[in-house]
Specification:
Layout lengths: L9 E3 L2 E3 L6 E5 L7 H13 L4 E5 L3 H11 L6 E4 L7 H4 L5 E4 L13 H14 L3 E7 L5 H6 L4 H18 L5 E6 L3 H14 L5 E4 L8 H14 L6 E3 L10 H15 L15 E4 L10 H12 L9 E5 L5 H4 L5 E5 L3 E6 L2 E7 L3 H16 L1
Parallel strand pairs: 3-4, 3-10, 4-5, 5-6, 6-7, 7-8, 8-9, 9-10, 11-12, 12-13
Antiparallel strand pairs: 1-2, 13-14, 14-15
Helix pairs in contact: 1-2, 6-7, 7-8, 8-9
Length: 376
Amino acid sequence: MIPARKTRTIRIGPLRVGGEAPIAVQSMAATRTQDIAATRGQVERLQAAGADLVRVAIDSPKDAEALKEIAEGIHVPLSVDLQENYRMAEAVAPFVAKLRYNPGHLHHHERTKSTEEKVAWIVDVARRHDCAIRIGVNAGSIAPEYKERYPGDNVGAIVACAVEHCALLDGMDFPDFVVSIKDSDPRLVIDANTRFAEARPDVPIHLGVTEAGMPPEGIIKTRIAFEQLLSRGIGDTLRVSLTVPFDDKGQEIEVGRQIIDDVSNGRFRSVPPNFFDGLNIIACPSCSRVENEKFIDLAEDVKRMTEDAKEHDITIAVMGCRVNGPGETDDADLGLWCGPKTVNLKKGEATVGAFGYDEILGQMRVELDRLIAERT
């Protein structure tokens, strides 16, 4: 039930992705990168679970130093997430097989330089160190120029961004790249990736539903998108993003393999027509950028506390870090993004305040009750 894919085959270290290569399943280390023992242990667990690739977030020179030790003796190819500091590519490229940059983050640094100059620098580093590149476009961090060009059309903006960055790498004669276009809403993931595949059928695609949340809802959201896309021949590698305890991250690999096997054999799960009605809790899957592990417990507590609000069409986003937290909570009715000691509470794009981990649930409940009262 998975048609032959039209994409070209690229090389990520020893791994082949795209074309006739098997669909690769990957995950991301959720521990703090500077905690070398914990991060190495998690990479090894993901490797044992059958991961084809493991991504690690790099946010500082100390993270890059830690990565060197983490990479020693690891057999699974590693990828790094450059986040906002694209210049970290030079420090980490010798130890990994792929560099991931987000076009929506390039404008934050060296504002006098053009996007083309910054991408050219990343490509030069990747070429010298034999790394592949992932162009990772997220709906929660759209580059400002695309927001201006596509007002009110996030899907159009992120697809155009991905297509134009592909053209940049084409012009630099760099073929070993893959594109990911992600959102927390599986319907938008389907729409955006279908449009991109029509525009660039040759480019390998990395599938993902970002901040899918906790099982079982997070698995259902992911399955909705992956079933629709894989059955159309779209998707060359994938990651299931689940908010689970660090020791259970191997579940992402197991679920990814199961979805591929189900679609390959024509086993599709029906989705109730009202699945997207009522309360929607978005939660990121955690990564090494999370500064307080209480974030995962907080997401579970939010889910339990809001059981009585299931029938209300309200979106609550629980994000684990300062990098994606501020932007990716903007579209939620209530947003919580977590720092090391406090949790920032938002109502839409407006900040309500920062509260301690022992205070935040009560404050969120006040805002939730107020929101329900306003709407009813």
